[in-house]
## 1
Amino acid sequence: MEHAIIESIFRRIAIVGLGLLGGSLGLALKKAGFAGRVVGQARRAETRQLALTQSAVDEVFANVAEAARDADLVILATPVAVILDQLPRLPSCLPPHALITDVGSTKRRICTQAAEFYGGQPLFLGGHPMAGKERSGLENADPRLFENARYVLTPLHQEHLRDPRVQAFQQLVVAIGARPIVTDPQTHDVAVAYLSHLPQMLASGLASLVDERHSAGTLPLEVAASGFRDMTRLADSPYSVWRDICLTNTENIRTAIEALIQKLESIRERLCDRELEQEFLAAHRLRDKLREMS
């Protein structure tokens, strides 16, 4: 994708929120050769200056409405709670032909609210790039962040997939190196509860447990090797990123945690039993499937 040139019906793209994902989207669009204008929005003056310095955007605003005005495509790249707050405010700022999408990590609440305010003019398309880093913030933005990553799309109605704006956005997704996949908001939220949110809770919980033992003087951290470091890599993620995710996907995450507890209890009972091998074999099968998908 190094020199891909994007021919698109979008001539002006507004990215609301210039953190890791928003900044990386701006950089990725530039890298792919997007010929239009990319504008951004950020509340903090330091972030606005950094966005210009890094050339993540061509122009940057403090006000959301000002950034979105006259945009053909608006990408909401803020935390989930902020997206939910922004959705009712934006229709009056946008031209009827605009497409508005988001990068929120949960989709049911966002899409349910969007359906109340976006009937097609402008049009809403739910989105979630399955890409990220443990460290957030524009300073960690990377134009290659989306390469080979799945980019989940959750349209409000299946017929929206035939809309030229949605088709053009899918082309943008491909141009930045990602692979679009379409599903419904409910299926998405159940899937990410197991595949994204549960691993985060596990990494944070494990790191917290070991910290407690270490602080009590019963566990020397010097014994930690690469396996433990790999398992707790996600523990670097800030709570500010995960608060809204937990609040908007509570039941699915709770169900996933309960399923994991049951699995761990089963493993505990099999520690001295050859049946434990079946758990390892099942784990190997899953890893093989993931390698085949990559």
## 2
Amino acid sequence: MMEPAMTLALLQYGDSAFPAGGFAFSWGVEGLAADGLLETAAELEDAVREQLIYRWNSFDRILLRRAFAARALDEIAVTDRLAETATPSAEMREGSRRAGRALLGISARLGHADSIRYRGMIEDDRRLGHLPVMQGLVYRDAGLSLEAAELLAGWTLIAALASAAVRLGVVGHIEAQHVMTHVRRALESMLARTPAPDARLSSFTPLADIALSRNPTRGARMFAT
């Protein structure tokens, strides 16, 4: 059973009111909706599952685990550079850095030592600060276990995609909760399987990636990604 202190930390960092700027990112939901590819709760569920299975579990989760296990901040920087080079989409790279740096900044302002030091390390290198890497660093800095950090990262992705769909008017609040409940079971199943220590990064979410790449050509937008 999870200790109360860790449970409370999960609730704090997973709260939509936690000021890390996650509300600014739809991770392709806005673009998919604009292109007519996301109009129903069923399509939202498919999109969330795709992101969770073919991006988060096989890419973001691996980076998070490497950052969490790093013995020194220089090792975290190596993982951060890997995230940069392994992400072909310029829009995804920019969004990942913006979200990651926002999370890191809040952690540093809360006084967490490694977050403060790492923010100083990357201040002049705008290529670093990717979200999954910062989740590994920040959640460890907050006293979470690796298992809790993975759970929180996976859940915040689900919540971000569902929340974006609600704000865009694609689904209502109750429909979004149904989607989150269904996909939550998929996350639970993923977390029951531990990735191999030498697992390679892989990602295949072409529709979301294309929707993101079209963002600069769109007119008014609600989200950064």
## 3
Amino acid sequence: MVVSTAEAAAHPIAARLIAQIETDGGEAIETSRDILAKLSGKDNPQAVLGVFEEFDTSLAAIDRSASDIWLVAQALRDPGNLGTMLRTGDAVGAGGLILIDDCVDPFSVETVRASMGALFTQRISRARWPDFLTWLRAGPGQLVGTSLNATNDYQDVRYHPPTFILTGNEAQGLPEHYESECDVLVKMPMRGKADSLNVAIATAVMAYEVLNQRRRG
């Protein structure tokens, strides 16, 4: 279902979207900006709001050969970080984001907003750690963990496709026994007084290092 204002429905892109939804059997509703603000929970909403079914988030739905880069986050708590990681994944051409253990809802209003549309370009999966490991080791894939305990500089390691970039919880990082399951642990130099980067920023730095190695390769 899509809800829009009259002026939005007149925009060519919105008009095509509405037409496609109606063709596919969905419903298109025209309403006022005031009603749209109430529906979206924003004082200054965008002119189009959509409601769709959640994606299949099982590991079985992932085709690891679809991309050389995959993002993996363990116990992620902040919807803004999740949305930013989805945007990063889209930017580097990653296949998607795999959420490990108890993470923030990828379909929450805050996450959807923060993803700026990348929610629809990235495959999202949710799994417990043992199930993820079993799935990962059943096929090709290099598991790269980011950790302050690492001795490898993130630019000194050669990353092999498909690369699964694993980051931990915003406050605690990765549990030690998770780190032990990684093929390699890496860290980024910290020249300031803070002990770590924001998890979404760290993911972006890692993802672009992997991408740049592919570009140079």
## 4
Amino acid sequence: MIYLDYQATTPLDPTVRDAMLPWLGGKPGNPHAANRAGREAAAAIEVARGYVAQALEAASGRVIFTSGATEAANWALRGALDLMAPRRTIVTVATEHNCVLETARWLERQGCDLRILTVDADGLIDEDQAVAAIDESVALVAVMAVNNEIGVMQPLTRISARAREVGALFFCDAVQGFGRMGLPLETTDMVAIAAHKVHGPAGIGALWLRDGLDLPPLLFGGGQQDGLRPGTLPTALCVGFGAAADQLNGWWEDDLANVDVLWARAIRAFGRDWTVNGSTRRRYRGNLNIRRYGVDANRLISEVRQVAFSAGSACASGTGRPSHVLKALGLSEAQARSSIRLGFGRFTTEAEIDQAAVLINAAAEAQLEWA
């Protein structure tokens, strides 16, 4: 199978798998136990934590391991509103991941004021509009780095600086941007990331907190991780995350150069019958979201079984609803339902891009012939 669903999850790097294996078998220690096995596990986790911080280019702050980015985002938003009382306003973007939007809407039902910024046809927010929306009543601003459906990169620097200027907290969902772009950590308070988007294992993520920021815990228990996020840490998953982050430290430039080549190859291979959704200028080019008039994307996915690709966010698959991200760009329901997302990266070859384009184009032509 040709795997082109990197935004949903990336293939596990063999180096990461090898780093995890000892902790899945011969090293059973609980990292919170005081015995030798426990201390060894704890030491391995702290090394992993350092690799993650290094990949974030974080000279300060704390990396708190979580079960994934969804937990990190829920914790960041809910904790920020508790911490910032009596401020009760949230500013976010219409194209955010549902872990942010649904948490923000839940907080709105609890009495918060929610301001959702619109985007243009390229999927980009208007910086002036965003700055105007962030005033002294705002508790939290939440803007993602790279969109998971269309790969668009939002202008974080000015917006995070505006949040800092008015005393609001700034949260960034950097799941798709981690290891692929620099983040303005000097004006950022919280960052959510996940291992399985950077060739690490699923089931482990992290929330980076700037120095001096102690969120109220989302969970309560044994006081692990400074009492901020209790629960026994999964040593193998933490080590895997660390190994994946360490790989980023060495592969960052090569990965970006590779996706640029693959992007150009894919644009040529799919041809002019397909239209790119979202900005092609401000974009992570390992994400190609395209549409073709009259094509049914879900049917295409079921027909082209030799290629793994997507119609949008894996988290929203099976809902039957068109993508909220594509609708926010102004696409009609028909256009959204004719859109596919191709994600590629470290282990993708140009030959795979060519072969996938042949298969998908043939299936699209067959659909249109019988329409």
